[in-house]
């Protein structure tokens, strides 16, 4: 009997490529992110990832705290990462309320529920993107960058439509 094993070798980059990428700040550097999750371990892991991405952040343990936090913060947030299923609130309902109140920040759903109908429901609630759990730091960084780019485009289109 014969066994075949395949392996993927890591991509090799030149010293110049590595130095160039290290000198360039990540697109998330300096972002101020609101992380909302009822699970303490998820808040801790998320905070650690945000820190490594160069973000400043504030963590909340439930969605019922978001509107007050947005209204009372002295520094405006650049994005919201929010769990869908929390003990006291439903992330989709919170997102709908935020959009109805005129919140134009990127709002990204963090959830393990990623069926096609579920994702459609989250988008209809006003989420810009869905970040499937579990996720790693690269996925979080991509989601924040993509969410910000998408929301910037939507806000610019809305401003143009409204003559701003």
TrEMBL record:
Residues 1-25 are annotated as: Disordered. InterPro entries: CheY-like_superfamily (IPR011006), Sig_transdc_resp-reg_receiver (IPR001789). Residues 32-148 form the Response regulatory domain. Residues 9-19 have a biased composition (Basic and acidic residues). SUPFAM superfamilies: CheY-like. The keyword Secreted does not apply. GO terms for biological process: phosphorelay signal transduction system. CDD domains: REC_hyHK_CKI1_RcsC-like. Keywords: Phosphoprotein, Two-component regulatory system. The modification 4-aspartylphosphate is found at residue 83. It comes from the Eukaryota. SMART domains: REC. This is Response regulatory domain-containing protein. It comes from Bicosoecida sp. CB-2014.
